[in-house]
Structure prediction request, 265 residues.
Amino acid sequence: MASSSDVPALRRGLAVLRLLAGKAGPVTAAAVARELALPRSTTYHLLTELAEAGFVTHLPEEHRYGLGLAAFELGSAYLRHDPLERLARPLLRRLVDRTGHTAHLGVLHGREIVYLLRELPARPNTTVTDVGVRLSAHLPASGRAMLAYLPAAQVRVLFPDRASFVERTGRGARSLPELRRDLAAVRQRGWAVEDGFVTAGLASVAACVFDHGERAIAAVSATFRHECPESCDAGPCGADWPDVAADVRAVAAELTSRVGGHSVG
Prediction:
């Protein structure tokens, strides 16, 4: 059994790993010490111990430290356990029971949203968003909920020209400027909406799930039947369903907490 005096050292070691995981490449010990407000001697001791355990790699020629093979193995083992889906499933079921709407969990893969989970109400609507289905992320609410929290440069890489914007029903952004306006509205509102962009007569509300670095890692959405009072040619009616959004955001926030993340805003 570790003594209570070992706990601060453990926490500092984990802080070092989290710091390294958030960097684009290896960093110096001085940078680690500075960002974590640690004495240099303590920092070197932690890095040495982590390197001996395989969680950190020392690059002597560069005088820098990066994540080691053991960190990769641990991350791979984590993914094999499907933790996100296991943590999300009971929450999605609760969302379905509360709202009566179909609930989904999706993640970004390139410029597409991929659906990992779907929970159905007693009388489900017919949707194309089954588990494993991929859709261009600029169309469904779940995709735009995640795109809204990506750096602008990354969104530009994903949707570089008009050919990147797939159409299904004639609704949704058809250019990068239009998409940027949509994403700005998502960030300001706190949730994304989709009204007939994927399937005519169906609408969705979605909110993001964040990791410990406040990066969007998934989106929770609720899909329900909705017919705009105007004709389809007139476009969406502008509803944003705050009551449904409150339930969806609560589930997304709880899933964020369960994965050890921190919500944005």
